[in-house]
TrEMBL record:
Main location: endoplasmic reticulum
Listed PANTHER family: PROTEIN YIF1B, YIP1 INTERACTING FACTOR HOMOLOG YIF1 PROTEIN
Membrane topology: Multi-pass membrane protein
Organism domain of life: Eukaryota
Region described as Disordered: spans on this chain: 31-55
Name listed for the protein in its UniProt record: Protein YIF1
Keywords: Endoplasmic reticulum, Golgi apparatus, Membrane, Protein transport, Transmembrane, Transmembrane helix, Transport
Comp. bias (Polar residues): 35-45
Function: Has a role in transport between endoplasmic reticulum and Golgi.
Protein family membership: Belongs to the YIF1 family.
Length: 309
């Protein structure tokens, strides 16, 4: 009846084609008004730009490379390097003036064999015969080659060990406290400083020409901590009897050690001539040597007697 209608009914209906605006083609969200170009811009910043003739630098040139390529920056860097070198040289000179780092290296040039021999010398100085310090071209050899040479390794380690042993002794008596341990360490350092200053003043007043330096004095005076450690340990193990026996032996040993060592330092002129010590000035030198040696046992007892009960 209606051919057109039947034809229309037999043929499937094609969807109507709608033209989409160009601005909506690349959008994931149809309700988004603008395209998100941040990712594209970030990718563009990291990509290398070709020579477009616009004078823009390529992305591979970092700001550091651009800074180094500037002649003014090169001059600034060279000037800064020269200033740093001059400052380092000035600091090194001032440090060597107050703290002789080069000399300190000499006093720590030790090895295990030297430490063992030196400890044996401190406990048994009566068996040692040759007390002369060896020289090589007017320069004393390193301590590891001469047991008579002073060093700072044993005094430094002995001082630290003394503080630790003092803390152990205080702990066994339920008297330990950080303040008391700090007072013990500061007292030992204060007495050592007073000893060094008193000896230097005495040498100046007596006008002694000697090669004995301040570091040598610190080394020789620091050897008494070895005997103090032995006395405290024996006191902890065997009580007062062990303390007095070991400390008494160490006091006599350090007295003999200081006499035989300082005799060659303070009485260098008389010892070199091989004549007996005579005259008022030499008598003062001998008294000074005896006073320094006698002060070591007194300080050893003063710094340890209250640690053993």
């Amino acid at each position: 009846m209606h051919p057109a209608g039947s034809a229309a009914a037999g043929t499937p209906r094609q969807p109507s084609k709608r033209r989409i605006p160009v601005s909506h083609l690349g959008m994931a969200d149809p309700h988004q008004l603008f395209d998100d170009t941040s990712s594209a811009q970030s990718q563009g910043y990291g990509a290398q730009r070709g020579p477009s003739g616009l004078g823009y630098p390529t992305a591979s040139a970092s700001p550091q490379a651009a800074f180094l390529a500037d002649p003014v920056s090169n001059m600034a860097m060279a000037y800064g390097s020269s200033l740093a070198a001059q400052g380092k040289e000035l600091v090194d000179k001032n440090i060597d003036r107050f703290i002789p780092v080069t000399k300190l290296k000499y006093y720590f040039a030790v090895d295990t064999l030297y430490v063992g021999k030196k400890l044996g010398l401190l406990f048994f100085p009566y068996l040692h015969q040759d007390w002369e310090v060896q020289y090589q071209q007017d320069t004393p050899v390193a301590p590891r080659f001469d047991v008579n040479a002073p060093d700072l390794y044993i005094p430094a380690m002995a001082f630290i060990t003394y503080v630790l042993v003092a803390g152990l002794a205080l702990g066994t008596q339920d008297r330990f406290s950080p303040d008391l341990l700090g007072l013990q360490a500061s007292s030992a350092l204060a007495w050592l400083t007073l000893e060094v200053l008193a000896i230097l003043l005495s040498l100046y007043l007596v006008t002694v020409n000697t090669d004995l330096t301040t570091i040598d004095l610190v080394a020789f005076l620091g050897y008494k901590y070895v005997g103090m450690i032995g006395g405290i340990l024996m006191g902890l193990l065997f009580g007062k009897i062990g303390y007095y026996l070991v400390l008494g032996w160490c006091c006599m040993s350090i007295f003999v050690f200081m006499i035989r060592t300082l005799r060659l330092k303070i009485l260098a002129e008389a010892a070199a001539e091989g004549v007996p010590v005579r005259g008022a000035r030499n008598q003062l030198r001998m008294y000074l040597t005896m006073a320094v040696a006698a002060a070591q046992p007194l300080l050893m007892y003063w710094l340890t007697f209250h640690l053993v009960r």
